[in-house]
């Protein structure tokens, strides 16, 4: 039974079929499974209890399902649809609509227009149209699908699945272990709290893991990928990507392209793969591995390992006790300032590399230890060990000082033997004492001045 008072309609307790008029109506379905047609006008409809079907029309309508498993159609106009309790289905159709699922596992399809979709409590499915839409999953394990617009996503609490579609989108996973597919466009995504999986698309994306043990994959484009807290794994994919570790023990793969791979505070592993890559270890005991390109490596504050691979690579030893293997290319090692106690691994397949020190020749002390040549910077604890120098029998490293002078390979044995007759200079000694003056001529003759 339906009652009408002016432009107000009341359904009562039965299963009602209510068709309003073209005015601005207030419609209450009452108890029961009702079907309500709002028609033209800016209508306010509440289905009340029961499994209701509510149709808006061309006006700016406010449709509420209330309790029950309801279906709401917004129609044309800028509508507000609210599912209420139960497992509801909301269709915005055209117009700039606001759609709220409420409690229950709801399906929300915004249709055309610039829409606001909110899932509420429950495991909801939110589908956007071609406009610039805003998604909020709220509580529950939600699925959100964008389209061609520049959309904004907030997963909220729960383990959410977000596919942003085309467009330049902004994505926040929120609480929970989320899966984020950025799609086409230049997207910005933050995983939030939880162990998240984030995959970029064809654009130049910015992905950040935030808290948790996250997986980030840039795919196509020149992407910025940042680990955040936790032990994260980063894949650059194609393009010239920038990868940054953070406080955890992170794993980074550059992929194709000229990439920048940076460690963080943890013990990180960085793989450059194809391209001319730049590596920076930062803090922690890190491993950096190059491939075919001409790569640049900078060690950090920890005890780092570098394998440069093939290519003509540049390796810079900073603080920490580092181990370096240039691989098969013609590589350059540089030792600056307080570089620590480093080791350069030599073998029979090594090409002739260059090792440059920022100390002058009269501040470098040579020692023969086993099969290794050890160069110490007098007055400091800094030293470089060239492994297998003497057992290889041929030159694999050209050593230069800060003035560009080169240590003659044939003079190494003579200089080592001469220095072996003296005590290694103690820490804090800034120059050789007068009692070592007999070494002056040998040092001078062993180093060939630069012709420049």
UniProtKB/TrEMBL annotation:
Highest taxon in the source lineage: Bacteria
Give the keywords, sorted: Secreted
Q: Which InterPro entries match?
A: Hemolysin-typ_Ca-bd_CS (IPR018511), Hemolysn_Ca-bd (IPR001343), RTX_toxin/Mannuronan_C5-epim (IPR050557), Serralysin-like_metalloprot_C (IPR011049)
* UniProt main location, coarse: secreted
Does DNA repair count among this protein's keywords?
A: no
A single Gene Ontology MF term assigned here is: calcium ion binding
Task: Reply yes or no: does the keyword Metal-binding apply.
Answer: no
The record's subcellular locations are:
Secreted
Q: Which residues form a coiled coil?
A: none
Q: Which GO terms describe its cellular component?
A: extracellular region
Q: Where is this region: Disordered?
A: 213-252
Q: Which Pfam families match?
A: HemolysinCabind
- The name this protein goes by in its record: Bifunctional hemolysin/adenylate cyclase
Species of the source: Ephemeroptericola cinctiostellae
Task: Read off the lineage from the record.
Answer: Bacteria, Pseudomonadati, Pseudomonadota, Betaproteobacteria, Burkholderiales
